[in-house]
Automatic annotation (TrEMBL):
Name of the gene encoding the protein in the UniProt record: TRMT2B
EC number: 2.1.1.35
Catalysis performed (reactions): uridine(54) in tRNA + S-adenosyl-L-methionine = 5-methyluridine(54) in tRNA + S-adenosyl-L-homocysteine + H(+)
PROSITE patterns according to UniProt: SAM_MT_RNA_M5U
Keyword Transferase listed: yes
GO molecular function, one term: tRNA (uracil(54)-C5)-methyltransferase activity, S-adenosyl methionine-dependent
Keywords, alphabetical: Acetylation, Methyltransferase, S-adenosyl-L-methionine, Transferase
Keyword Cytoplasm among record annotations: no
Protein name listed in UniProt: tRNA (uracil(54)-C(5))-methyltransferase
Superkingdom of source: Eukaryota
Family, as annotated: Belongs to the class I-like SAM-binding methyltransferase superfamily. RNA M5U methyltransferase family.
Organism for this UniProt entry: Leptonychotes weddellii (Weddell seal)
Length: 367
């Protein structure tokens, strides 16, 4: 079975479940005017493959933990299960989806850790400092690395010594072969911290990556979401455009817009684009991207969609047609967002993009 047919069958099962749930809920059969196929009440299109399937990741997150030889300064991916206490950290060189550049930076981070007098932070249990590494690249090979560090009780001057050491390693030391475009350092006492909670500190290089996508230059900050497979994302956004039917009479509403790519790539077809996004850095990226590409009909709002959307829709109700695109995080949309969309008569088309169409997405669609 090909990966595409596995995915197709999985989507079919999700739609079956959704339809039977709706039938039970309504006590009537689900009827739509759309063409049907595969025993469903709607049309399920074949899976559209990504043009790039090897080394496609533009972002990889590497952990630090004990390797198979017991060395606690090993950088890679976890293998094993927590239940069996068999977790080890292994190198990622054999993984087909990870580009060589990411593996190279991970290997040099490991070299750095092994020569550092400072201990790594393993699962927060035993103290320690050096934590995970995130590597982001664009299609030109520009590379941003982000290192997280548990500060424990270190004084500022001791922290500065560690920052200086890692910067030196990647600029003039052995790590210089990685040719990083930028190195960020984030002090973090939690599994994940946003820029607001603990700022990403630029140790050297360019603050942003710029990615070419659908003829645009997209600005990406360390904290911002960006689809992991750039060529696959182009296919996704083209599909969104085809489904959306946006034209010069429509407003495009991009809810959970991240770096604003959906809105910016459709701006030339719409009368206006309105984007809403929680992460401030991503909103700044979206504004920068619009300005950089000479796009002037986009407006991006920073904050929670559930807070911003109801007011925003009220101000746009009169005489406009709105196409809404939602692409929420895995936790799904807040009920107030669903309600605001349902209550807005101007919204004639809704496109729901989801990387996890069961679970919360199904709940949102039912709502
Ligand atoms: C899957 S990403 C999609 C980003 C973008 N649409 C794209 O295609 O690249 C989901 C985005 O939703 C944002 N988000 C999560 N909760 C949110 C909320 N309550 N309000 C607004 N944005 C939110 C996240 O920060 C993230 O950028």
């Amino acid at each position: 079975m090909t990966q595409e047919s596995v995915k197709f069958e999985a989507q079919k099962r999700i739609l079956w479940r959704l339809e039977s749930y709706l039938q039970k809920l309504n006590g009537v059969s689900v009827t739509t005017s759309a063409p049907r196929a595969e025993g469903l009440s709607c049309l399920l299109h074949p899976i559209i493959p990504s043009p790039v399937i090897n080394g496609y990741r533009n972002k990889s997150t590497f952990s630090v933990n004990r390797g198979p030889d017991g060395n606690p300064k090993t950088v890679g991916y976890y293998l094993g299960t927590w239940r069996d206490r068999s977790i080890v950290c292994v190198w990622s060189n054999h993984l087909k989806n990870i580009p060589e550049k990411h593996n190279q930076v991970a290997q040099y981070y490991e070299v750095f850790l092994r020569q550092s007098p400072v201990e790594p932070c393993l699962l927060f249990h035993e103290g320690g400092y050096w934590r995970e590494l995130i590597v982001r690249t664009n299609s030109q090979g520009h590379t941003m690395a982000i290192i997280t560090f548990h500060p424990q009780e270190l004084r500022q001057e001791d922290l500065n010594v560690q920052k200086e050491a890692v910067k030196k390693f990647f600029t003039t030391g052995p790590g210089a072969v990685c040719d990083l475009s930028s190195l960020y350092f984030q002090e973090s006492t939690m599994t994940r911290c946003s820029h607001q909670q603990s700022p990403y500190q630029l140790l050297f290089g360019e603050p942003h990556l710029f990615e070419d996508l659908l003829g645009l230059k997209i600005c990406i900050s360390p904290d911002a979401f960006f689809q992991i497979n750039t060529a696959g994302a182009e296919v996704l956004y083209r599909t969104v455009r085809e489904l959306s039917g946006v034209n010069s009479n429509t407003i495009l509403l991009d809810i959970c817009c991240g770096t604003g790519v959906i809105g910016v790539s459709l701006a030339q077809y719409a009368s206006q684009v309105l984007g809403i996004e929680l992460v401030e850095q991503a909103v700044e990226d979206a504004r920068r991207t619009a300005a950089f590409n000479g796009i002037t009909n986009c407006e991006f709002h920073a904050g929670r969609a559930e807070k911003i959307l109801p007011q925003l829709l009220k101000s746009k109700e009169d005489g406009h047609f709105i196409v809404a695109v939602v692409n929420p995080a895995r936790a799904g949309l807040h009920y107030q967002v669903v309600q605001a969309i349902r209550n807005c008569r101007a919204i004639r088309t809704l496109i729901f993009v989801s990387c996890k169409p069961h679970g919360e997405t199904t709940r949102n669609i039912i709502e």
